[in-house]
Write a structure and sequence with these properties.
With about 180 residues, the chain is of the alpha+beta class. The protein is about 15% helix and about 35% strand. The chain is built from five helices and ten strands.
């Protein structure tokens, strides 16, 4: 079963500091592995410093996000487009789609409302993600298009968990350091 277009939310059992308290949007998931971007790791690099023509459309806080540990020297962009001009093959979640940074923001017959740029991505080899899911490292949940361009990326992990039902929602209040509790 493919989880593309859904969120991976790191559980306290993740065991990898790179992904601790992360929210990952899965862009692809299948027999060849999985690929996504971390939605809640802002960097200190302003979008204007790397993609000037997209700076006015950058979602707050207007910085490039660390999409994951793989290929951090390349950029990937996602944006919200509420005018319906998204090509079906580019759609990733609701009104969010992949953005071609080589195009001018007004090209392609669509109007981007907000964009977010990611340096790098997260990737899993075949069956690797399934193994991590079986170990309890991730919760797979439905996302909201607003998650992609969340104005409070530091609070996104808890916000996504609060929307869930049952015991998963309880973890929204899980302290970062349980020993300090």
């Amino acid at each position: 079963m493919s989880h593309a277009g859904r969120l991976l939310v790191a559980t306290p059992l993740i065991g990898d500091p790179t992904f601790e308290r992360t929210v990952v949007l899965l862009l692809a998931h299948g027999p060849d592995g999985a690929f996504g971007v971390v939605l809640n790791r802002p960097s200190d690099t302003a979008v204007a410093d790397v993609a000037q023509r997209w700076a006015d459309l950058a979602a707050a806080p207007g910085v490039v996000f660390v999409g994951g540990p793989v290929g951090q020297d390349s950029l990937l962009a996602l944006g919200r487009c509420t005018d319906g001009g998204i090509r079906p093959e580019a759609r990733v979640l609701g009104d969010c789609a992949a953005v071609d940074l080589e195009e001018h923001p007004t090209e392609g017959g669509r109007t981007w409302d907000e964009v977010r740029l990611f340096a790098g991505s997260a990737g899993w080899a075949p069956r690797q993600l399934e193994d991590e899911l079986a170990e309890g490292a991730w919760w797979v949940v439905d996302g909201d298009p607003a998650d992609v361009v969340a104005a409070d990326p530091d609070g996104l992990w808890a916000q996504v968990l609060r929307r869930q039902r049952g015991e998963v929602a309880w973890f929204a209040n899980h302290p970062e350091d349980p020993s300090a509790n």
